[in-house]
Amino acid sequence: MLASTAAGVSFLSAARAAHPAPVDDFKFRYIVGSSMYGYLYLGEILPEVAKCGAAHLDIWPKSHGNQREQLEDLGEELFTSMLKKHKVELGCITQYKLGPFGLQNEMRVAQRLGCTTIVAGGRGPKGLKGAELKKAVAGFLEQMKPHLEVAEETGVTIAIENHANNLIDSPDSLRYLIEQRASKNISVALAPYHLPQDSRLIADLIRDLGNEGIEMFYAWEHGDGCHQRLPKEQELKQLPGRGPFDFGPVVQALKEINYDGWTEIFMHPVPRGIPIMETAAQVTAEINRSRAYIEKLAS
User: Fold this and answer.
1) In what order do the strands lie in the sheet with 89-94?
2) Which pLDDT score, from 0 to 100, does residue 8 have?
3) Which of 121, 138, 216, 285 is the most buried (most CB within 10 A)?
4) pTM: predicted TM-score of the whole model, two decimal places
5) Beta strand pairing status for 56-59 and 186-190?
6) Given this model, what pLDDT does residue 131 score?
7) Quick one: which of 64, 99, 59, 62 has its CA closest to 76?
8) Is the pLDDT of residue 298 over 60?
9) What is the C-alpha to C-alpha distance for residues 71 and 65, in angstroms, rounded to an integer?
10) C-alpha 234: how far from its chain's center?
11) What is the pLDDT of residues 276-285, one digit of tens each?
């Protein structure tokens, strides 16, 4: 396990001590990422959400999906009526393209649509460690203050994903983000894919961040990666239960903190913008295969 810095020891110890044992009635709160279905029309995706054990959708823009652009084309009124027809709510908008400092208008869109989460990356200097990293994360949070004022006003949580090659891309950077934040309207979107594939390290990180520190958990492992064309069976190794990563300790840690944020079963296809399988029904079947795997671990 990566060693935590001394400055964060008391914070991390307190976070772990707060949740000593898993709860008996734990349930995942699933959300479906529209990008899993590539550029398919929202009218084809929305009927699949309930079949995935979810009631909420996370919409992605190009190039991973194009459902955020579809929302613009449809208009908010028609989009809302489509959601109601299929008994789906908009839970999240993923917006890496806009970045953490470009979300103010998007947060007002989210507020109008009843959406509570926007995912972005954490921009800043890369490759820092220790005191330099902690200081840089503090600087990032200072830059975020005017944006967090809008987040608080609109009831939106900005979830920062630990995307590779960003300021906030390591276990310690995530710990510093939660330790130093002054507003709970900024949180973590935790992607195991982008971390060392050590399930106990990630489980300890989950305990350190705690339930209030994680807004989104991507059930997503590295497998054989997502940046070059691979045979489909290899590409699907990013999905829980398909690849070598042991989600057992991770699920146990989520139970221990009584995690009630979003859980999104996830992967990236190559090229971006195609569905992970040929048809919507096949995509749903793959999501459910992984859902059954993590549900078994949680039982």
Assistant:
1) 29-30, 262-265, 214-219, 186-190, 157-161, 117-121, 89-94, 56-59, 32-33
2) 46
3) 216
4) 0.92
5) unpaired
6) 97
7) 59
8) yes
9) 12
10) 23
11) 999 999 999 9
- Residues facing residue 217 across a β-bridge: 190, 263
What is the per-residue pLDDT for 21? 55
The answer to whether residues 219 and 189 touch, using CB atoms and an 8 Å cutoff, is: no
DSSP string for residues in 215-230: EEEEE---TT-SSS--
Tokens of 43: 């009218």
Query: What is the sign of the dihedral through the CA atoms of 83, 162, 184 and 53?
Result: positive
Beta bridge partners of 37: 275
* Alpha carbons 54 and 34: distance in angstroms, whole number: 12
Residue with tokens 């295969």: 289
Gap between the Cα atoms of 199 and 1, Å rounded: 10
Are 81 and 56 contacting, i.e. CB atoms less than 8 angstroms apart?
no
Instruction: Measure the CA–CA gap between 182 and 121, rounded to whole angstroms.
Output: 19
Per residue in 116-151, pLDDT (tens digit) is 999 999 989 999 999 999 999 999 999 999 999 999
Q: Which residues contact 162 (CB under 8 A, 6 or more apart)?
A: 122, 168, 169, 170, 173, 174, 188, 189, 190, 191, 194, 195
Band the pLDDT of 6: cuts 50, 70, 90.
Answer: very low
R_g over Cα of the chain: 18
* Tokens 């947060």, located at residue: 107
pLDDT over threshold 80, residue 4: no
- Which residue, chain included where needed, has tokens 């005191």? 131
Name residues whose C-beta falls within 8 Å of residue 290's C-beta, 6 or more positions apart in sequence.
219, 239, 240, 241, 242, 265
Q: In this model, does residue 220 exceed pLDDT 60?
A: yes
Tokens 């993923």 sit on residue:
94
